[in-house]
Each structure stands twice: as structure tokens, then as C-alpha cells.
Amino acid sequence: MVDPIVEVVNSQVGVLILTGVMVLVAGIVAALFELTKPKPEESSEGEKLNPYLAGEPESVVTRVDAPIDALYWGFAKGWGKKLYNYLREVMHSGNLNDWCSYMALWMGIGSIIALVGIVAYLIWGWSAW
User: Fold this and answer.
1) What is the pLDDT of residues 64-120, one digit of tens each?
2) What's CA 102's distance to the chain center, in Å?
3) 65 CA to centre of own chain
4) Which candidate in 43, 70, 93, 128 could, as Cys together with 124 as Cys, close a disulfide (CB 3.0–4.6 Å)?
5) Domain count of the chain?
6) Is 124 exposed, middle or buried (0-12, 13-18, 19+ CB in 10 A)?
7) Same-domain status, 90 and 31
């Protein structure tokens, strides 16, 4: 005799239940991650403040006679510098937690895409693909 619970929980419902459990566990882990995240430290010294110039000295950027690469240096000194400063302040704190946040973001996006694909497959089946 087959257990009534086994009859009710077929493979598709089982996948949905396990997906819900996975989302719940991920939410708990994300909440714990946010609660234990250390406060960012403000620092005005060190490697964090030096711009990355692809191995070139800083005098290359300040040169008046920029020949053919004037467009590149115009970008690097203008909009690119603002973008670099923003990304440096946001991403380059030297804190391992920032890297974990970045990786968790991409893992979360990948999981959401996979979940949407699985749910679409369960709803419409293989014939819709």
C-alpha cells in the first residue's frame, strides 16, 4: 500500500516545495549576513586612493600634449575618474564581506533565472520550448 503523503507529493510539487525551502534558507542566510556585516571604515590613505592607470605613471594623465590617445585620457580624467572613484569607494574596501556580497548578488541572479526556467518548464512543459 502506498502512503497517502507520497501520492499527494508528486515530483512537480516536490520540486516546488524544495524550491520554497531553498528560498527560505537563502533568506535566512541573507538576513544573518546583513546582521553580521561590519560597519565600513572610512580611510583616506593607502592604495585605495591611488588611481589605476594601466601601469603608467600619473604624469601621463597630467601631460598637456596628449597626442593620439587624447580621447582615452579625456575619458580617464573626466567620466572614467568619477566612475572609478565611485566603484573604488563601493567595492574596494578590503573587506571580504564586500566580495561575498558581490558573489551572492550574482549567485542570486543566477538562481532567480534558473527558478524562472524551472517554473516555466513545470507550467508549460517541454513542448513550449
Assistant:
1) 555 656 667 676 677 777 877 777 777 666 777 777 887 888 899 999 999 999 998
2) 4
3) 40
4) 128
5) 2
6) exposed
7) no
Q: pLDDT tens-digit profile of 33-54?
A: 888 887 776 655 666 666 666 6
Q: Which residue has the cell 516536490?
A: 14
Whether 27 and 50 map to the same domain: the answer is no
Distance (Å, whole) CA 126 – CA 120: 9
* Model pTM score: 0.31
- Residue 94's region, left for phi above 0, alpha for psi from -120 to 50, else beta, is left
Please provide the DSSP assignment of 5-61 as one string. Answer: HHHHS-HHHHHHHHHHHHHHHHHHHHHHHHHHPPPPPP--SSGGGSPP-TT--THHH
Asked if 30 and 63 sit in the same domain, the reply is no
* Cα gap 104→83, rounded to integer Å: 23
